Amino acid sequence: MAGLCTQVGGRHGVGRHVHHPVVSRRSPPPHGFSPVDRVAPLTSKRKGNAMQVATELSYASFQTVYNVLSFALASMIFTALFLLISQGRVLPRYRNALVVSATVCGIAAYHYFRIFDSFRDAYIAGGAGQPLGADGLGGLTYALVAGDGFNEGYRYVDWLLTVPLLLFETIAVLALARSDARSLLNRLIPASVLMIVLGYPGEISSDVTAKLVWGTLSTIPFIYILYVLFAELSKSLDRQPAEVRGSVGRLRILLIATWGVYPISYLFPVLDSFGLAWFGGEESFVLRQVGYSIADVLAKCLYGLVIYKIARLKSFADSAEFAASEGEAPSSEKQAA
Amino acid sequence: MAGLCTQVGGRHGVGRHVHHPVVSRRSPPPHGFSPVDRVAPLTSKRKGNAMQVATELSYASFQTVYNVLSFALASMIFTALFLLISQGRVLPRYRNALVVSATVCGIAAYHYFRIFDSFRDAYIAGGAGQPLGADGLGGLTYALVAGDGFNEGYRYVDWLLTVPLLLFETIAVLALARSDARSLLNRLIPASVLMIVLGYPGEISSDVTAKLVWGTLSTIPFIYILYVLFAELSKSLDRQPAEVRGSVGRLRILLIATWGVYPISYLFPVLDSFGLAWFGGEESFVLRQVGYSIADVLAKCLYGLVIYKIARLKSFADSAEFAASEGEAPSSEKQAA
User: Fold this and answer.
1) Do A205 and A238 fall into the same domain?
2) Which residues contact A2 (CB under 8 A, 6 or more apart)?
3) Which of A156, A286, B209, B235 would suit a FRET pair with A276, their CA atoms being 20 to 30 Å apart?
């Protein structure tokens, strides 16, 4: 009969949402099996574990990743809602930029939901379901188990959708002449799609050469995007109000600073393979998750709030009547950047 | 006893939301039973596996299908929301087209939720629930298990609802004279229903002759739809503004290009039965899922965004006042096509 329970369990995976904890506590495992005991130690060579998912996490590491993913999720949801609710506080011509910013945060929220669930379900606590000893929670270790795994692919799917939209909202909020906007978008959006698509084969490959080749290819459109944003876009900024030019400048700095996190993280497995074992270990896994999450919050939520601020400033500049109806002095604005 | 375990597990699927996970974690399989071992190898003859579902998937294949289904799901949800939120940005007479486009994306999002969950629950990782060794995730293989299976029938249900609506929104956004619109819809909608209904018996049949007969029957209304859209509809386009005619042209190209994916995929099992075993294998299964998902995203999300763009252009052409309130130059528009 033990075999029956076992099998059902194995199939069901390892979700952390325990809906009937009492049932579990009632009947402890017959042989006190701890899955962590059977985990092979981390080595710097882990063929096939291309996404560099740590096979074992301490309680502190597990909780850190858990909490930072939840932080990113909450930030995305409520920035999206704020931007949607605030549409009426800019002129109609700038609302599409806010809706697109909200869409970016919404898409990211969806993916953080998926990433969060995927992380929670990918690890199992040693001796799960058994009463804790004197060490309490701090003594727990978490092992990566066979199942769906911790799926980092969601991040690429997210970027594929959100990065072009981020560039779109950047152009949209400037309300440039139609031909200028179209010309910029026709270069920025294909370049951004190319950047994400070229990065993916390198991310999933366990071969260092492949990683470096795809990473280099992906860098080419990234540099082109920077060129368009800094060289080409500047020509279109002359007609913008002075305070808007300052905000757009900060927007571009924010973009470079946050997008720079992704290639750095991408290089971790490469550095690992060069013998820097730390880059393949538990700490670097945690650091990558924290880094990605913070970069995403800055690149999407803070970015969206700066877009909102620019839309407000431009609305006031365009219409004195609207400025007066909003109290004229935009001192109540969030100093997002 | 092991056989019984398998069956129970298969029944329950491998949902990640585990309601009694502790039971499962407590007692791992005593002999390290891996269901993958017992799965029959793929052959080019699999009687009854009419929907051509792969019986075994590598980690990379599993993740690719998983991610592409999630990508389609996210695209559908957020396009639906975007179209609903953006209603105010077109004149009232075009809002129904946006609402119907959003409905199409919403219905598709529902079905992708079902397909995603169905896929996730249909496969089980080798040694599911047990800690991974040093190979990590990359070494996993996934086996199709007895149970609900991977239900592709959802796709037909989806098309039965969304394809007539896609044709409806196409006619709705043109705001033709009522008699013209009614005449076009009276021909397009029954033809589209017939196309889907006639395709279904061929899809579920494991008999090649039946597949070819039903596939051919289904092609007749498809060709009739193309005839109506290209020959009949063109007569009604003369009164449309020039830029709208261009967008409608792109809309029809998009429709042919994306709808063409479905018959190609439909033929895969037929090609398999002709001895081209690749068409019944794992790679072709993955390619079909990726192809269907991308075709759906283009045929519904991108299509909906082009409908939105046409509605914007027509709103500006209809009302100079509305165009002015939107900043006149619709430079902030997404250049969807």
Assistant:
1) yes
2) A30, B27, B30
3) A156
Residues A133-154 have pLDDT tens digits of 777 777 788 888 877 778 878 8
- Cross-chain Cβ contact B63/A153 below 8 Å: yes
Residue B87 near chain A (CB below 8 Å): no
**Could you tell me the two tokens for A186?**
């026709």
Structural domains counted in chain B: 2
Query: Which residue in B18, B20, B74 is closest to A161 by CB distance?
Result: B74
Whether B89 and B20 map to the same domain: the answer is no
Q: Is the CB of A103 inside 8 Å of chain B's CB atoms?
A: yes
A&B contacts, CB < 8 Å: 292
- The verdict on A9 and A65 lying in the same domain is no
The arithmetic mean of pLDDT across residues A326-335, rounded, is: 55
Amino acid identity of B155?
Answer: R
In which order are the strands placed within the sheet that holds B123-125?
B56-58, B141-144, B123-125
Calpha distance A16→A91 (Å, rounded):
46
Query: What pLDDT does residue B184 have?
Result: 92
Do A224 and A258 have their domain in common?
A: yes
Nearest Cα residue in chain B from A92: B326
Q: Chain B, 110-129: which have a CB under 8 Å from a chain A CB?
A: 120, 124-129
Residue A337, domain member (yes or no): no
CATH number for the domain spanning A142: value is 1.20.1070.10
The DSSP secondary structure of A137-177, one letter per residue, reads: GGG-EEEEBSSS---THHHHHHHHHHHHHHHHHHHHTTT--
pLDDT, tens digit (0-9, with 9 covering 90-100), for B236-254: 787 788 878 888 888 889 9
Q: For residue A148, is it within any domain?
A: yes
B97-131 pLDDT, tens digit per residue, is: 999 999 999 999 999 999 999 998 888 888 777 77
Q: Domain check: are B133 and B205 in the same one?
A: yes
Residues 202 through 231 of chain A touching chain B, CB cutoff 8 Å: 204, 206
Residue A220 pairs in a beta bridge with none
Chain A contact for B57 (CB, 8 A cutoff): no
What's the mean per-residue pLDDT of chain A? 79
Residue-wise pLDDT tens digits, B256-274 = 888 888 888 888 877 877 7
Q: Which domain holds residue B307?
A: 56-323
CB–CB of B126 and A111 under 8 A? no
Structure confidence at residue A132 as a pLDDT band (50, 70, 90): confident
What is the pLDDT at residue B34?
41
Could you tell me if B92 and B174 lie in one domain? Answer: yes
Backbone angles phi, psi at B144, to 5 degrees: -70, 130
Whole-number pLDDT of residue A219: 93
Residues A84 and A9 occupy one common structural domain = no
B41 to chain A, closest Cα gap in Å: 21
Taking the C-alpha atoms of residue A264 and residue A45, their distance in angstroms, rounded to an integer, is 20
Please answer yes or no on whether B5 and A2 come within 8 Å at the CB atom.
Answer: no
The reply to whether B220 falls in a domain is: yes
Q: Is the ipTM of this complex over 0.85?
A: no
Cβ atoms of A114 and A74 within 8 Å: the answer is no
Q: What percent of chain B has pLDDT over 90?
A: 39
State the smallest CA–CA distance between residue B205 and chain A in angstroms: 30
Please say if the pLDDT value at position A51 is more than 60: no
Tell me whether B132 touches chain A (CB under 8 Å). yes
Q: Are residues A10 and A142 in the same domain?
A: no
